[in-house]
Model the fold of this input.
Amino acid sequence: MHTPPLRVLVLLAVLLSACGTVATPEWSADAQATRVAQVATAQQMTALAPTATPTPSPTATSLPTQPPTATPVPPTATPTLEPPTATPLPPTETPAASQAMAIGKGDVANGKVLFETLRAEVNFACATCHYVDREDRLIGPGLKGISQRATQRKPDLTPPEYIYESITHPGAYVVPDYPDGLMPQVYAELFSDQELFDLVAYVMSL
Done:
């Protein structure tokens, strides 16, 4: 084995002793105080800095919409009150008996039958109380010529109207010297309209 020369060994030892340690730089007292102040300031700024990232406020994209303006409604005109128009009434009809005689609806023959027929509701017939061939009194007045005398009984009624009223409402006119209520008051219900027309036609024929 080859051994290096002594000179080389000495040189290596010198080099190793020179490079064995590295000197640590030392701070002066003022520099160290400045360094400490910088570190403290950095730590304080870090503590004061906000940790949350601020959220930017949304920016309105348009102007606020104003509420619609209500269109004023014109006041309703006060209706003019007018009196209701009267509905014209139909003309007064001619009483049934007069109408029947005018148009020939009364049947004289059937009226004679009705006049002579006993009605169980009143227990007698018209012929029971009235003569038909004289003016003399039986129970009621005789009916011969009644169509002429009727014109003097109630001037506002025609003879057929008077006879019709005397049958249906005998109390409307009472012949002098005869008591009221002597004649039955129910013939308007006992006879039909046509039967009443027939009775009027028969009495008018006497």
Remarks:
- The first helix runs from residue 6 to 18.
- The two ends are 196 Å apart (CA to CA).
- The helical segments are 6-18, 29-48, 96-103, 108-116, 146-153, 159-168, 187-190, 193-204.
- Residues 5 and 78 are 140 Å apart (CA to CA).
